[in-house]
């Protein structure tokens, strides 16, 4: 059986920051006699709940996507980069703290979801957005999972653009909206549709597939 888990981290409802930089200097006594004090902070304009596509998942702060069980013959029937099985989906959105009411923003605010995937867990040689198997025991070989996303209005059901994990910033990680400029890319009423599908990455070997993805919500 293969599964992909989205996990809202302990600090999942995080906040982007408009940075305040204060420089403190004294008259120079030598070439390296200088200093800088940087103070970062934010007053957030909203407190919202990240929904994961169903009430149970949202309440438990995690969503497990079951990609199914396949024989080695089926998984190895096509070449490297070919898909295995059906696509599965999770719809990420925002609700008020009660999980029902719309989330209220102030002004022209936006939000997004950032992920931080370790480079050794990305299989960029196979294709964009492909994640490696991180199962600790009895791990299947030769398979990965491709992650695709689309930002759209409520009712958007599938992601179509592979996530480019090379687009990563120190502040936010890789934004699931697809923004490559470190600018948050989702309007309050929009959702992020996430689609995952197993792909062949090498020589197929029987076992389990798992990959857990912590999600961090950012507001701006």
Short summary:
This protein has 2 helices and 13 strands. It has helices spanning 55-60, 72-75, and strands spanning 2-13, 20-22, 37-39, 49-51, 62-68, 83-95, 111-115, 130-131, 141-153, 161-162, 174-175, 190-205, 209-219. Strands 4, 6, 8, 9, 10 and 12 form a 6-stranded antiparallel β-sheet that branches. Strands 5-1-13-7-11 form a 5-stranded mixed β-sheet.
Give a verbal description of the structure:
- The protein has about 220 residues and is mostly beta strands.
- The chain has two helices and 13 strands.
- Strands 4, 6, 8, 9, 10 and 12 form a six-stranded antiparallel sheet that branches. The chain has a five-stranded mixed sheet with strand order 5-1-13-7-11.
- The longest helix is centred in the N-terminal third of the chain and has 6 residues, at about 55-60.
- Mean pLDDT is about 80; it is low at about 10-30.
């Amino acid at each position: 059986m293969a599964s992909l888990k989205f996990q809202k981290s302990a600090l999942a409802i995080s906040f982007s920051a408009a940075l305040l930089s204060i420089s403190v200097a004294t008259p120079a006594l030598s070439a390296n006699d200088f200093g800088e004090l940087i103070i970062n902070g934010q007053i957030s304009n909203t407190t919202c709940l990240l929904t994961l596509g169903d009430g149970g998942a949202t309440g438990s702060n995690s969503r497990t996507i079951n990609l199914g069980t396949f024989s080695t013959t089926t998984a190895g029937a096509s070449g490297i980069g070919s898909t295995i099985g059906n696509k599965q989906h999770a719809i990420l959105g925002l609700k008020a703290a009660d999980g029902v009411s719309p989330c209220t923003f102030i002004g022209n605010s936006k939000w997004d979801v950032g992920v931080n995937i370790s480079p050794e867990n990305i299989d960029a040689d196979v294709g964009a957005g492909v994640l490696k198997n991180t199962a600790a025991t009895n791990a299947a070989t030769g398979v990965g999972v491709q992650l695709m996303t689309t930002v759209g209005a409520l009712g958007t059901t599938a992601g179509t653009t592979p996530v480019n994990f090379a687009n990563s910033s120190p502040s936010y990680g890789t934004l699931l909206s697809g923004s490559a400029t470190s600018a948050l890319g989702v309007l309050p009423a929009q959702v992020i549709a996430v689609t995952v599908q197993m792909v062949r990455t090498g020589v197929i070997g029987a076992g389990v597939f798992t990959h857990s993805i912590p999600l961090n919500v950012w507001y701006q």
